[in-house]
């Protein structure tokens, strides 16, 4: 049964202030579909609350009125090649080979087209995952986790990457903490999130042609993060030399505009562990003429030396010298193995 949202009781924001997607440098209002809270799409999915936004889409918490379950709706802006992520999902779903990494990637449940005033918008329907690893990290003292906790997360990501690279033939190209999402929150937490939105609707600004909603903080969820957001992914059987990756994490071959391949997913992930989004080294000292060991003074945990040897292997300048995700998973430095059939 669909829900009826109150017409009042929410905080009305100053219409002259830029919020949410409006703050993005490339924002063009006509490219975004003007969603209304409570709107029902495809005679099935009701929009409950906004939970995110970006350059290419807005993301909404919703209810599947047919299956009586919760979903996440990723509604793309208009424009060319907005079906790229959908096509990558179709390609991954065609890989029938049983591999544990397939379960470590966010699932696509459904998709449909919304026709707006300025064109068509693709909507991807996903399971409603929790907060991102970057949000989770900010909740820890010093924005840091233990080496043991980090190793467990990296192992899981390597298994997901091995599925992408060796089975699905896909290069993610945008591995960073914001694209690692915690598993689906418990049903009780999702129900309470929905009820809270009915009791205290999200703040918003109302314009002549649309309403801009403030994103609500989504429940965190428990467990290890899943790999998501394939909007920048590429097929591995094609030749590539275009720009990829956030600027601070770009591999040498991408900067030099040489051909790149699966190995760039390894470099970008490990570099995001060591540099922040502004390109600043996370250690206390500058990079030049200083060893990796000296920059890791603040790292605590068992087998720190082995971990640094493992990092050094992954950050080879020459992409042909970098190990594959599977080789990194089974390396001697990655000391605790999971009993998985991934050969």
In short:
This protein is an alpha+beta fold. The protein is built from nine helices and twelve strands. 25% of the residues lie in helices and 17% in strands.
**Spatial shape:** globular
Describe the main β-sheet briefly. Answer: 6 strands, antiparallel
Q: How many beta-strand runs?
A: 12
Total domain count: 2
Class of the largest domain, according to the CATH hierarchy? Mainly Alpha
Overall description:
The protein has 343 residues and is α+β, with helices and mostly antiparallel strands. It folds into 2 domains: 1-77 and 186-219, Phosphorylase Kinase, domain 1, CATH 3.30.200; 98-105 and 130-184 and 222-343, Transferase(Phosphotransferase) domain 1 (Transferase(Phosphotransferase), domain 1). It has helices at residues 84-93, 133-138, 147-168, 187-199, 252-255, 263-274, 292-295, 304-314, 325-329; strands spanning 40-41, 45-53, 57-64, 69-76, 108-116, 119-126, 170-171, 180-181, 204-206, 211-213, 226-227, 234-235. The chain has a 6-stranded antiparallel sheet. It has a two-stranded antiparallel ribbon with strand order 7-12. Strands 8-11 form a two-stranded antiparallel sheet. The radius of gyration is 21 Å and the shape is globular. Residues 335-343 have low confidence and may be disordered. ATP binds at residue 74.
